[in-house]
């Protein structure tokens, strides 16, 4: 017998719940969202919600954990496989976000945390290995600036048709920014 999580109907219901709540969050403050009302309006049984999650905070927490586990896997793969270029690493991260766009949208719309900032914390050791000849203070400053650029790049996925070409374009931009970051941002720090 398969676990419920492996069942296609289970996954389909889970995605319907996430899409309904994400849509509601985009229009209303998540704090005032009545889960039962959103579910009823979207023809989803409240009981189905509780098969999947204990509460709304549980749903958001599990969505965040799912995303961060995936980012951690990508970081470990890139760290262990020296043939993975920086551009390919970013492409893998953005593809992972794209494949899990419902979870990303839910977390972003819940305004609970900046998933991009959390992802960067997981990616930091890998990225800072590209500029390890700077002082810790300079490294911190470069990292903060790169995080802002990463947030902006990932944020574009809401505003444009996010297909494979867009993913490649954004991966190339992020790889260039990462490689050039020490030169650009350390000079800004000196001024």
Protein described:
By secondary structure, this protein is an all-alpha fold. The protein has two domains: 1-52; 65-190, Tetracycline Repressor, domain 2 (Orthogonal Bundle), CATH 1.10.357.10. Helix content is 75%, strand content 0%. The protein contains nine helices and no strands. The chain has helices spanning 8-27, 35-41, 46-52, 56-80, 86-99, 101-110, 115-128, 136-155, 164-190.
Q: Give me the strand/helix succession.
A: HHHHHHHHH
Number of domains: 2
Q: Which class do the helix and strand fractions yield? A: mainly alpha
* Shape, per Cα inertia axes: elongated
Topology-level CATH name of the largest domain: Tetracycline Repressor, domain 2
CATH hierarchy class name of the largest domain? Mainly Alpha
CATH superfamily of the largest domain: Tetracycline Repressor, domain 2
Strand content range = under 5%
Number of strands: 0
Corresponding CATH architecture of the largest domain: Orthogonal Bundle
């Amino acid at each position: 017998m398969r676990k419920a999580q492996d069942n296609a109907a289970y996954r389909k219901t889970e995605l319907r719940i996430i899409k309904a709540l994400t849509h509601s969050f985009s229009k209303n403050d998540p704090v005032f969202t009545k889960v039962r009302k959103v579910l009823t309006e979207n023809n989803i049984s409240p009981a189905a919600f509780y098969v999947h999650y204990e509460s709304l905070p549980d749903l958001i927490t599990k969505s965040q954990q799912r995303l961060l586990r995936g980012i951690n896997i990508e970081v470990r793969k890139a760290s262990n496989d020296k043939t993975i270029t920086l551009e390919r690493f970013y492409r893998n991260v953005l593809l992972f976000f794209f494949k899990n766009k419902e979870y990303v949208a839910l977390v972003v719309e819940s305004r609970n945390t900046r998933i991009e900032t959390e992802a960067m914390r997981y990616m930091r050791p890998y990225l800072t290995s590209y500029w390890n000849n700077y002082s810790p203070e300079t490294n911190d400053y470069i990292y903060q600036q790169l995080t802002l650029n990463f947030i902006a790049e990932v944020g574009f996925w809401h505003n444009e048709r996010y297909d494979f070409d867009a993913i490649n374009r954004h991966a190339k931009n992020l790889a260039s920014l990462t490689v050039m970051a020490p030169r650009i941002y350390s000079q800004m720090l000196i001024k």
